[in-house]
Specification:
This protein is an alpha/beta fold. It is built from 9 helices and 13 strands.
């Protein structure tokens, strides 16, 4: 599997109650490796897929650290070191109430400066699936990379999956533009909010069904409500969430995607893969940050 996407540094601040504007709010703060694309790759490797590669872009400031962290998770990184931009940084504000819901402040830095010059046809050698982080669609240079990668995958018959990544950025890009850019993708893994935004429908099941009329397989992630599997305009399965006590929901959707893809590549049915995705999501929310435990 080849994952192309963002590699960033997450600064996770876990606080209780509302933020105190204009003064101090006590928090537990940790610096951890992150990025939707990198997280997906790590969870796919953790879930047992034997070879997971990652193409991403980082700054000089943290390149060695990110390479070590990815390798510790069993991922083979190919990190392009940007000579100008620093590594992307995301401030994750996590409320430590029951839901452990998070809010992101994002400085994409080098992560969205991937461009067609970073791509090589040989990256698809021996690859059974190409997975793209939706964050790549939110800058001009990385959009151009997506177009090249999709063309390469089509020429080789490699299936392509994509996670829309951010409802906020998606709204800025525009639904029509997004759908045009992902033509040729065979698997879409949106969150509930992203699926509803892409279709204009308020109900996640209706949204998943509508999307699956245009994309062969749609798997909608619903957090504590599990996942929906839709094909050919119909929701075929509603997979319940696995039980969990949330600590930090950062990266839960990435964990789902990584485990889902790893299981799907074994030949399992999408419904079975979605059950594994829900299990991984439950593991992720009980940890701080978006990565699985290292291999030690």
């Amino acid at each position: 599997m080849l994952v192309v996407g963002d590699v960033v540094t997450d600064v996770v601040a876990r606080h209780r109650g509302a933020l105190a504007v204009g003064t101090d709010t006590a928090a537990v703060i940790r610096r951890v490796p992150g990025g939707a694309g990198a997280n997906v790759a790590c969870w796919a490797a953790h879930w047992g897929w034997p070879e997971v590669r990652l193409l991403g872009r980082v700054g000089v400031d943290a390149a060695d650290w990110h390479e070590r962290e990815l390798a510790e998770c069993g991922v083979r990184p190919r990190l392009v070191v940007d000579p100008e931009a620093p590594t992307g940084t995301v401030i994750c504000l996590v409320a430590t109430e029951d839901s452990a819901e998070r809010t992101f402040l994002t400085d994409s830095g080098a992560s969205m400066r991937l461009d067609p010059g970073d791509w090589s046809e040989s990256m698809l050698d021996g690859v059974a699936r190409l997975h793209l982080s939706g964050y790549l669609l939110f800058s001009e240079s990385s959009r151009a990379l997506v177009a090249v990668a999709l063309e390469s995958a089509r020429a080789r018959g490699v299936p392509v999956s994509l996670d829309p990544a951010s409802a906020g950025f998606l709204a800025e890009l525009g639904v029509d533009q997004f759908l045009k850019l992902i033509e040729g993708v065979d698997l879409l893994l949106p969150s509930r909010d992203e699926a509803c935004l892409l279709t204009g429908l308020p109900d996640a099941a209706d949204a998943a069904a509508k999307l699956s009329r245009h994309i062969p397989l749609v798997v909608t992630k619903q957090g504590a409500d599990g996942a929906l599997v839709a094909r050919a305009g119909t929701v075929h399965a509603r997979v319940p969430a696995a039980p969990a006590t949330p600590t930090d929901t950062t990266g839960a959707g990435d964990a789902f995607t990584g485990a889902f893809l790893a299981t799907l590549l074994t030949g399992a049915a999408p419904e079975e893969a979605a059950r594994d995705g829900c299990r991984a999501g439950a593991m992720a929310v009980e940890r701080v940050g978006g990565r699985p435990p290292g291999r030690g």
